[in-house]
C-alpha cells in the first residue's frame, strides 16, 4: 500500500478551512493533521512513500459531476466522449467521480438498458463512476424493474417532459413513476420543459425560415421551463416523491423551486456552468468564417441558453448563494461540429443537443469565487459535498476526513488556466464551448482513491482504475 502526505495546504470543506496535512494510506484518507496534532511535524513526512507539496494551495475533496452523458445515442448520432476519454478529461479538471445516465430506450427492458451502460463503462473509466437510470418507456414491466434499482446502487432516475418521440413521458407515466419514487425513496430527476408545445413552436419557426441555431432558444422559451417545473412539482407533491430538477436555466423555474421548498417540499435543483456564464445573446452574435451563423450550434443545448437582458444568469448565481439551487453539474453531452452538430445545418431541430464541459466545471466555478459570486466553501459544497449527499455517496466521497476515499484535488489559487485555448482540452470535441475563458486558478494535482492521476498537467492514471459506485439513497431525505 502506498502512503501519501499532502502537506502544507489549506484544507477546504463545505463548512470552513483549516491549515492541515492530509495522510493517505492506500485508497483511503487516514488522518487530517491540524496544527497542534501530535503527528504534525514529526517523522510522518519522512516515513511516507510520497509527499505532495500543497504549500499556498487549497486541498479539496475531488469534484463530483452528477450529470454526464458519455456515449449517449442522441439526435441521430452519439455523444463524442467515451467513458475513457470523458473520465480522463474529468480528471484533468479536478473531477474524481461522475454519475452518468444509463438509458432505457423505448421498447427496451429497463434492466437491459442498465446492463448496456455497465458494458460501456466497465473497465474503461479513469475515475469512479455511478449511474442514474433514464426511464424512456414507462410500462408495467419497467415500473416493476425500477423498484429493484436501489439494490443495484442506482437510487435516482430521470424522466423527460421534453423530446416527444425520444425520451418523453406524459403526465400519467410520470405520475406512476413518481409513485415508485415515493415508495422506494429513489430521487425523481426531471428534465422540465414542455416538449410537445416546444415542438410546435420550433416547427412554426422553421416554416418561417428561421432555421439558425439561435431559434432553438427562442422555441424553448422560459415559459415552457417554468410551466413544466411547476407541473413536476405538483405531481411530486401529489405523490410524495422527492424531486430533483436538472439543468435549470430560467429564473422563473428557480422561483418555482424556491416556492415549493418554502412550503417544505423535498424539491432540489441543479444548474450548469453554461447557464451561469453563457447567454442567448452570445449565441445570436456567434458568427465565424467557417460556419457563419451556424457557429451558434456550438451552444445548442436543452434547456437552452437564456437571455442575459432578462437576468437569468444573475438569478442562477443568486440561487446558488441562497441554496434555492443546491449544486452545479455539467450535463456533459459533447458533440463535434464536423459530422455531428452540422446535422442541424438548415434546420436547428436536427442539431444534436449538448455542450461538453466536464473538464472545466471546477475551474469555472472557482472563477465564481474569484469574482465574489460564491465563497470558497460554497465552491466545495456545490461541486463535491452536496453532489455526494444528494446522491448517496457522502462519507465515502465529498469530504476530506479519515475513512473517506482519498479523492483529493490540490488547487492553486495563484495559477492560471486558459480554457479552450489552442484546443488544449482533453474532451473528444473539435471545438470548445469555452474558448477564450480565463481562470485565475489552476488544478495542480488530482488524486483518485489514493492514486495520483494528474500532475504537471499530465494524466498519470489509467483507464480501468475507476470503480463502479453503488450508491445509497439521497442523504438529504429523512
Ligand atoms: O442538451 C442536453 N441537455 N443534452 C443532453 C440530454 C439532456 O437533456 O440532458
Ligand atoms: Zn435533460
Ligand atoms: Zn443531461
Provide a descriptive summary of the structure in words.
The protein is an alpha/beta fold and 478 residues long. The protein has a domain at 62-387: Metal-dependent hydrolases (TIM Barrel), CATH 3.20.20.140. 30% of the residues lie in helices and 22% in strands. The chain has helices spanning 44-47, 83-92, 110-121, 140-146, 171-184, 195-207, 214-219, 222-239, 251-262, 273-277, 280-285, 312-322, 361-370, 376-390, and strands at 3-12, 17-25, 28-33, 50-53, 58-61, 63-68, 73-74, 77-78, 95-104, 128-135, 156-160, 187-191, 243-245, 267-271, 327-328, 408-412, 417-419, 437-439, 442-448, 451-455, 458-459. The strands form 4 sheets. Strands 1, 2, 3, 4, 5, 16, 19, 20 and 21 form a 9-stranded mixed sheet that branches. An 8-stranded parallel sheet has the order 6-9-10-11-12-13-14-15. A two-stranded antiparallel sheet has the order 7-8. Helix 5 links the parallel strand 11 and strand 12. The model has no long low-confidence stretch (mean pLDDT 97). GO terms for molecular function: dihydropyrimidinase activity; metal ion binding. Keywords: Hydrolase, Metal-binding. Its cofactor is Zn(2+). Pfam families: Amidohydro_1 (PF01979). The modification N6-carboxylysine is found at residue 158.
CATH C-level category of one domain: Alpha Beta
Report the C-alpha radius of gyration, rounded.
22 Å
Residue share in β-strands: 15-25%
In this entry the ligands are: N-(aminocarbonyl)-beta-alanine, zinc ion
CATH architecture of one domain: Alpha-Beta Barrel
Number of strands: 21
The gross shape turns out to be globular
- Mean pLDDT equals 97
GO cellular component, one term: cytosol
Family: Belongs to the metallo-dependent hydrolases superfamily. Hydantoinase/dihydropyrimidinase family.
Organism: Agromyces flavus
Keywords: Hydrolase, Metal-binding
